[in-house]
Amino acid sequence: MYAACVVLDQNREVSEIHIVASATRKPKQIVRDVETILFVKHRIKVDYRKISLVLLPDEKLLEIPLARPEICEIAEDNLGNEKRIRVEIRGASKVAVGEAREDIDNPMPFRTSAKATIDAIEKLLGRNLDMRLDDATALRLGVREVVLVVLTSSIDNHEETFVGASFVGTRLAESAARATLDALNRRICNLTFESPRQTQPND
């Protein structure tokens, strides 16, 4: 199971369950697993007809908006006259590492980290997002500092701008990576893939 959404009615009872899962397992097995987990953990009995199930090949799962990538690790390495920032991203059970470099005498950790994050996401998705980094800077809001990342992407022959934000922590590269991923998630949600076949439990 790679993504799930539970819809509650006005009485706070389960009315719909939507599941996206790997096609490597049979629909009936997945539906029964969902019923069992809900009952064992929450004592909730759900009619299988409330469960909507979509099965996808593993290579398609990375394109699902709900399977949001997350940052696993960020590494910073000094390479003589350069500094390298590596960002490791996990999504849909796969991992990709992106990297970018900056001049050690002209450090721009926000921009470099943002570029490394874009690189990681493109490797994870296996496609070029046509993403341009417009800005990556920190602003002070009251007593807190916030890093803002502005990205522009070409979508359906027109440009669209995405903004991501994150509070600035002790590691500037990590803060910028999180802000970049915040912006990229908005772009990933616009990716399209072939409409999968909706599978019923009796298939």
The beta-strand count equals 10
Total separate domains: 2
Helical proportion? 25-40%
- Stretches where pLDDT is under 50 for at least 5 consecutive residues are 191-201
Report on the architecture of this protein:
There is one protein chain. The chain is an alpha+beta fold. It has two domains: 3-61, no CATH class; 70-188, Double Stranded RNA Binding Domain, CATH 3.30.160.270. It has four helices and ten strands; from the N terminus they run ββαβαβββαβββαβ. It has a four-stranded mixed β-sheet. The protein has a three-stranded antiparallel β-sheet with strand order 4-5-6. The chain has a three-stranded antiparallel β-sheet with strand order 7-8-9. A hairpin with a 2-residue loop joins β8 (144-155) and β9 (158-167). α3 (109-125) crosses α4 (172-188). The radius of gyration is 20 Å and the shape is elongated. The two termini are 18 Å apart. The model is unreliable at 191-201 (pLDDT under 50).
